[in-house]
Amino acid sequence: MSDKIERVKTLIIGSGPAGYTAAIYAARADLKPVMYTGMEPGGQLTTTTEVDNFPGYPDGIDGPTMMVQLQQQAERFGTEVRIGMITAVEFSKVPGGIHKVIADGEKEIEAETVIISTGASAKYLNIPSEQRLRGGGVSACAVCDGFFYKGQDVAIVGAGDTAAEEASYLANICNKVTMLVRRDEMRASKAMQHRVNSLKNIEVRYNTEVDEVLGDQVVEGLRMVNNKTGEKDEIAITGLFIAIGHKPNTDIFKGQLDMDETGYLITKGKSTKTNLPGVFASGDAQDKEYRQAVTAAGSGCMAALDAERYLAEIGSVEETVAGQYKI
Ligand SMILES: Cc1cc2nc3c(=O)[nH]c(=O)nc-3n(C[C@H](O)[C@H](O)[C@H](O)COP(=O)(O)OP(=O)(O)OC[C@H]3O[C@@H](n4cnc5c(N)ncnc54)[C@H](O)[C@@H]3O)c2cc1C
């Protein structure tokens, strides 16, 4: 541990759309935010080429550029962005208490407020051809990328409610959707299964797994294997969607913050407040429902406003902010 312990007003953990939006608002409210970017500076959008649905970009924008611009906007107002990981936390349980945070396993920071925006990671199959073609036709987000495959043949892997919903979404846009289900039945609810089965352009293949994604630079086809018979079969597709779940990046908060059985942080009512005073959660880490950049950004804004109001309430923020919010 270093000898000198740093004290910050607002610590932001994570540098996706939620973290940067929280940083913009917190910096403009003079909370002097310090942000730790984590292992993926810029977050999930740095893994995608085209973002077409974020408001304000009429011609679309590539994910990495958008995230650099968000960083520049946050820094313009004084956010200190640090490349590093938060590796441990010891949150205070009392209003006005100081939260202890360890960065990169050694640096101790004391924070008056903490905004968590650590996101969620999409699960992949982790076979080499899938990893190679990520961003070249392999995607983990049908709502984000389905539009690019309008009128084309695609496939989706997964058997739960999200997979069924994404398959139905794709069926409205694409020519044909082949759905690969590993077992001999879907895990999705009966209602969702009914929806999938009622759509004529979805073909469900049970006991079927991906053997290899075909294509050099972009997806051109899929080789599937029947896990009962071992039989292999190929289809021509241009897009492959992986819908086998997400894992929220919340392990370091276990035992301190309330979370659901899959690890999504639980916030109070319409706010970003967690069960502990001065600790706020935003973005995909607390949202298994929408998981979009714009919703993450919206909740990042809310987290900064919640932090600002909390600081005003406990008497840490001087006249500038205290006058604005009468709590
Ligand atoms: C392939 C793909 C394409 C997508 N396309 C679109 C699209 O077109 N439009 C759209 O709206 N949405 C899209 N999404 C969804 C969108 O990317 C997410 O909803 C959004 O990025 C969530 O933002 P976030 O800030 O909550 O978290 P994330 O973007 O997941 O960022 C999390 C951040 O937390 C950091 N972090 C994690 N743990 C720690 C730690 N211990 N210490 C410090 N930092 C930590 C990470 O390094 C990262 O910077 C796409 C997602 C994927 C995977």
UniProtKB/TrEMBL annotation:
Cofactor entry? FAD
Catalytic activity, as annotated: [thioredoxin]-dithiol + NADP(+) = [thioredoxin]-disulfide + NADPH + H(+)
Annotated ranges, domain FAD/NAD(P)-binding: 9-300
**Keywords in alphabetical order:** FAD, Flavoprotein, Oxidoreductase, Redox-active center
What EC number(s) does this enzyme carry?
A: 1.8.1.9
Give the matching InterPro entries.
FAD/NAD-bd_sf, FAD/NAD-binding_dom, Ferredoxin-NADP_redctase_2, Thioredox_Rdtase
The protein's name in its UniProt record: Thioredoxin reductase
Q: Which Pfam families match?
A: Pyr_redox_2
Hey, what's the signal peptide range on this chain? none
Task: Return the broad EC class.
Answer: oxidoreductase
Oligomer status and interactors: Homodimer.
So which domain of life are we looking at? Bacteria
The family assignment reads: Belongs to the class-II pyridine nucleotide-disulfide oxidoreductase family.
